[in-house]
Structures are given as structure tokens and as C-alpha cells.
Design brief:
heterodimer; A: about 210 residues; alpha+beta; Arc Repressor Mutant, subunit A; 2 domains; 5 strands; globular; B: about 425 residues; Rossmann fold; de novo design (two linked rop proteins); 10 strands
């Protein structure tokens, strides 16, 4: 799909954020994923041209960061934290359960293109372990069953809202735009904080 | 009286705590009025006097760092916030930015003014979409309110603040790798010196501070450095966020004076999950050497934790009970370091690969007792032999686990496998002993 004038307007606005244009490479790659779902060869060529780089220099950046995908992922990309704490608390069982339930391997998508699965590292929500992410939104305190229910609901077109996030789970491409710095106007949705985040505050108010 | 001192988290239970209105209702954006009426050097002096030290792991005195920025050099200066929270176990900056992004922005304005920077960046990890939304919205609202942009509060100070979103690389939490990433390269650490204060972003004088560090600054300016210095211990001043996770009844965030102990924090967290007992824990993320139940009364401040052989790090207290296999835990952390090694330095790139192979064998009861010596020898050849501290972090859980749990490693060899039932350690386990909640 060729880049449109509208795409180039977004690209230029991203480049203009920075004092030096090469700094725009990461948000441009997020934007590329918002456009196509993954980083295409065409995107790499366009970004290289806009930033006066060789395509090899862009590819070097793409291949360094795990969030950039060179192949399509699911419309809903599900990450299971398998770093030590989540793994021990149930993340390993959740990952194995989802793998079997969906019939796919790590970094693969279901045939209908709805769900892909990834073993992810610590996602900074350890007090909500075990943690599952969908399109980088938090699903806290998961069990094997709740994670299976989540992917089933996603596949039937009715995913539940994230635990701490917007009212409705955005698609992979929608959230890639958020990562590129393009606002979706949904910052006001969802809770300020979950229960574990508030525990110390609550106890201090009780004088403990 | 409560042992806790919520400052950063004081308004998190309000529905609109993340909005500019919610922040201002609780006294927000008052500190910049005070700071912008001071000389920049006086702001740096206040932060020095407060005793604030970095909350991202290293614990370097913040005011001293700011003082390293050369002044009158006719170069652009940059203020960069490290919001790439990725150290395993660390989960404080993420809820902070989700619930109260404006306190971070106010701290950035004060810090940038102090070091004479007109450009600031927040480098946030890419895997936290809703936090990104909240911070982005907060920046937009701060611009609209005249706290960012040209001639802030009519004081002639200009500041542009840019949110930069990472893409899944733990190493970008290392400050020089972060700067390379922000410049548009692969995020690989740089050799120091020169330090970022002399040659940082675009080779210009740059401050890189952790989210919690920067967010602590408005309270110091608003209440005075003496107020802050009166909290905590002699050399570790102030309050901080302790994050308890794992096998406790009530995990969560606890904002307390530096120097509180795990025994006190466990009491607040409802203790180790019922029917179980503490086995090992990390004081400040997986890169800090492990502690055991012998360290329940170690003061959790910079000096106390160091004296006991570990590091305060990010105050990420990951708690594991007796159902957890130490070899499995350490293997998994080691796989993480292998995965996240940027590949620049040979000892780290190759060493973490070998560590994983040996630990995998040990977890499956293969290998020999000599492999433990080999692990320690490898760690000795990895630690201190790479550009950054990732390699040192990789060695920490291995060395400390062999120190405290050598018998458990040997037990794997004796029975030819792992003696633990991994189901028993899950949160949804139902064991005769009581299990998780």
C-alpha cells in the first residue's frame, strides 16, 4: 500500500517534534505498525528516505527492538509475562495453557489472524502478578482459565476491558498509533490506580 | 502513627488524580512558582541540601549530578527522564505515571530550569499503552496551561517536553543506551567517560534521572529541603516507593521513609501467604544480590542494604516462599539477561549464553558439582568487564543463590531433576498448607 499524502503529513509532524530528525526513527516505526500492522519493506524504505539514512541503518534499529514486528501479528497481540516472579506465580502455566488452547507457538498468530502470542519479559506490574498484556494493555491477576476466557472473548469479537486501561480494548494497529504519539483521546478512561497500587495509601489513612 | 509517608501517592485514590485539575486541587504546580522565582543555582543547592539520591538504582546524589552540568558553555542542555522501567520486580514508576503524571512534569520543569535546559524528554517503555496515553495527555494539558512552551509563568523560561516511546529493550534503561536509542540508534551503552553531564544527548550536557527521582523534586521545593532531609536515615534521606510482590498476602506499593525493614513492610502486606514461609527475596530488582530470612531486619536504605551485601536498587522487593525452586528462579532471570544483552561487549553477550546452558542442565539434574564452580568462574569473568551494569546484574542472582542455597543446587544433581512442584508456587495453587488467597 503506497504512502498517502495524509501519511506524509503525520510523518513530517513526527519528525518535527525532535531537534534532530534521526531521533524520529522509533515513533516512525510505531507509526509504520499503525499503518500496516507490522514494519514492511516499503516503510523501511520510506523512513530511510525521510531521515537520509540507508535502509540497512533502519533495519538495524528495527531488528534491535522486540516490539517491532517484521511479520503480521494478530489483531490482538497477547503477551504473557514469563519473567521469574510472574512465571512462578502462574505465568508459566498460563503461557502453556494459552499455547495449547490456541494451538500456536511463541510469536505466532491464529489462522483467523485474531490473536498472536508472545512470551514477554517483566512488564512493571509485579504487584498484579501473574500479568497478561493484550496490545500492551494490562490484564492483571490472571489465571489459566481467565486468560483462556480472554482470548476466547477476543476471538468472538467482544474482549473485556483491560483491568487498568481504556474502556474498550484497542486493536494492535490502534495502539501502535498511541505509541507513535498520536492521541486517541482515551487518557481519561479507566481507573487512576488499581488496588495494590493504593494499598500503602489506604493503610496510612488507617494509621497503620 | 502510621509508618508510611504517602507523598507521591497521596492523591492516587482520587478518581481524577491524573488530570491537571486533580493535581492542582492538591497543591500541584505551586512548586514551579517558587522555583522559577529562585536563581537556578539556588534550586540545585536546595536539591543538594535535601539529600535526594537517585531512585532508579544507582543512588547517586541528584543535586550533585545537576551541579556537574557546565554553565555558560553556550551549548544546548538536555533534561531526560528515564521512564523505561524494566528491571524485573520494579513496578513503581508505572503506577506513578498512570495515577499522577503531572508531578513528574512539574519536576521536569524545575530540573530543566535548574540546569538551564530548554528541551526535555521522557523516555518511556513502549509496553504500557495506557500510561503513555496519560503522560501524553498530561503534557498537552501542561502546554495549554502555560506550564510548558514559551515564557513559562511569564518568567522568560522556555521548555519543550517530548514523550519518546521505546520499543521493548531492557537495556535502554541504562542511561547511555537510552541516549543512543533517543538519538535513533540501536540502544547500546557508551563507554564512560565522558559522562552524560558533559557529553550526553547529541553530545551535549545532559541529565538523565529516574521518574521517581524527578517526581520527588516538587515536594522538596514546596516544603523545603529540611522537610525532606528530616525523613529517612542519616545518609538516605526522604521517602520512597517500596514495591512488594510475590508470595505475600497483599502485594502493593508502600511509600515509606528510607530505612524501613522488610519485617515492617511484610506486616503491612499481611505477611507471607498463609501457611508458608519466606525463602528468598530481592531488595531492589533481580540485579541486586538475593537476601533470605536472615535479612528481615536490614534497614532498606542505601547503606544498610550495601552493608548486608546487596543493593537498594529500585526497592523492588520480590518475595518468594519455600515452594519456589531457587534454580528455576535464577535460570529464568539468567535467560532474561541473555535475551536482553545488547551484544556489544563479549563477556556479557557470550557469558550470559553459557550461564543459561549450565543452569538449564542443573535445573534438570544434569551436570556435575563442578558446574557450580564453573558458574562462579564465568560470573567472575563477566562482572565488571562490560561497558554497563547489565552483566553485573546477570551475575548477582547466580553468585548470591549459590552462597545461600548451594545444597539445593546439589539436591537437583542428587535426584536427577527438580525436587519442586511448580504448581505449588502459583497463586492459584490449593495446597493442604493453605495455598494462595
Amino acid at each position: 500500500m503506497p504512502f498517502t499524502n495524509e501519511d506524509f503529513t503525520v510523518i513530517d509532524s513526527i519528525i518535527n517534534r525532535y531537534p534532530r530528525k534521526r531521533s524520529a526513527i522509533m515513533p516512525l516505526l510505531h507509526f509504520a505498525q499503525a499503518r500496516d500492522g507490522y514494519v514492511t519493506n516499503e516503510s523501511i524504505e520510506t523512513i530511510a528516505e525521510k531521515l537520509d539514512l540507508e535502509t540497512a541503518e533502519v533495519i538495524a534499529v528495527v531488528s534491535f527492538y522486540t516490539q517491532y514486528k517484521r511479520e503480521p501479528v494478530g489483531e490482538y497481540h497477547v503477551g504473557v509475562c514469563i519473567n521469574t516472579l510472574c512465571a512462578v506465580m502462574g505465568g508459566d502455566a498460563i503461557y502453556e495453557g494459552l499455547k495449547e488452547h490456541l494451538g500456536i507457538e511463541n510469536n505466532c498468530a491464529t489462522k483467523d489472524g485474531k490473536v498472536s502470542l508472545e512470551r514477554i519479559e517483566c512488564n512493571a506490574a509485579c504487584d498484579y502478578a501473574p500479568v497478561v498484556m493484550a496490545n500492551w494493555e494490562f490484564y492483571d491477576n490472571q489465571t489459566v482459565q481467565s486468560a483462556k476466557d480472554l482470548v476466547d472473548a477476543i476471538r468472538s469479537g467482544n474482549p473485556p476491558a483491560p483491568t487498568r486501561g481504556p474502556d474498550k480494548l484497542p486493536t494492535w494497529r490502534e495502539n501502535s498509533a498511541v505509541l507513535a504519539g498520536i492521541s486517541d483521546g482515551r487518557a481519561g478512561e479507566g481507573v487512576s490506580a488499581g488496588e495494590p497500587s493504593l494499598l500503602g495509601l489506604k493503610l496510612s489513612k488507617e494509621g497503620k | 502513627m502510621s509508618k508510611l509517608t504517602p507523598v507521591l501517592s497521596a492523591n492516587w485514590d482520587e478518581k481524577d488524580s491524573f488530570t491537571i485539575a486533580g493535581y492542582k486541587r492538591n497543591g500541584g504546580y505551586k512548586a514551579i512558582e517558587k522555583a522559577l522565582a529562585m536563581e537556578p543555582d539556588a534550586v540545585i543547592q536546595s536539591v543538594k541540601d535535601s539529600g535526594l539520591r537517585g531512585r532508579g538504582g544507582a543512588g547517586f546524589p541528584t543535586g550533585m549530578k545537576w551541579g556537574f552540568i557546565p554553565q555558560g558553555d553556550n551549548k544546548e542542555h538536555y533534561f531526560v527522564v528515564n521512564a523505561d522501567e524494566s528491571e524485573p520486580g520494579t513496578c513503581k514508576d508505572t503506577p506513578l505515571m498512570m495515577a499522577n503524571p503531572h508531578v513528574l512534569i512539574e519536576g521536569i520543569i524545575i530540573g530543566s530550569y535548574a540546569i538551564r535546559a530548554n528541551h526535555a524528554f521522557i523516555y518511556i517503555r513502549g509496553e504500557v499503552a495506557h500510561v503513555i496515553r496519560r503522560v501524553q495527555q498530561a503534557i498537552e494539558d501542561a502546554y495549554k496551561a502555560g506550564y510548558l512552551g514559551k515564557n513559562i509563568l511569564g518568567k522568560g523560561f522556555d521548555l519543550e517536553l517530548i514523550l519518546h516511546v521505546g520499543a521493548g529493550a531492557y537495556i535502554c534503561g541504562e542511561e547511555t543506551a537510552l541516549l543512543d536509542s533517543l538519538e535513533g540508534f540501536r540502544g547500546q551503552p557508551r563507554l564512560r567517560p565522558p559522562f552524560p553531564a558533559i557529553a550526553g544527548l547529541y553530545a551535549r550536557p545532559t541529565i538523565v534521572n529516574n521518574v521517581e527521582t524527578v517526581a520527588s523534586v516538587p515536594s522538596i521545593i514546596a516544603n523545603g529541603p529540611e522537610w525532606f532531609a528530616a525523613i529517612g536515615t542519616e545518609k538516605s534521606k526522604g521517602y520512597t516507593l517500596y514495591s512488594l510482590s510475590g508470595h505475600v498476602n497483599n502485594p502493593g506499593q508502600f511509600e515509606a521513609p528510607l530505612g524501613i525493614t522488610l519485617r515492617e513492610l511484610l506486616e503491612l502486606a499481611g505477611g507471607i501467604r498463609n501457611g508458608h514461609k519466606l525463602k528468598f527475596w530481592t531488595p531492589g530488582g533481580s540485579s541486586t544480590p538475593l537476601f533470605t530470612d536472615a535479612h528481615l531486619d536490614t534497614p532498606l536504605d542505601y547503606e544498610g542494604v550495601s552493608a548486608a551485601g546487596s543493593m537498594l536498587g529500585t526497592k523492588a522487593l520480590q518475595i518468594f516462599d519455600e515452594t519456589t525452586c531457587i534454580v528455576r528462579a535464577v535460570l529464568r532471570w539468567t535467560e532474561f539477561y541473555k535475551h536482553e544483552s545488547c551484544g556489544k561487549c563479549t563477556p556479557c553477550r557470550e557469558g550470559t549464553w553459557w550461564l543459561v546452558q549450565i543452569l538449564k542442565d542443573l535445573e534438570h539434574g544434569k551436570g556435575t558439582a563442578e558446574d557450580l564452580d564453573k558458574l562462579l568462574d564465568l560470573c567472575d569473568n563477566i562482572m565488571g568487564r562490560s561497558f554497563c551494569a547489565l552483566a553485573d546484574g546477570a551475575a548477582s542472582p547466580i553468585i548470591s543463590s549459590i552462597r545461600y542455597f548451594k545444597d539445593e543446587y546439589l539436591q537437583h544433581l542428587a535426584i536427577g531433576g527438580c525436587p519442586f512442584d511448580s504448581v505449588a508456587s502459583t497463586i492459584f495453587a490449593t495446597s493442604p498448607a493453605g495455598g494462595a488467597k
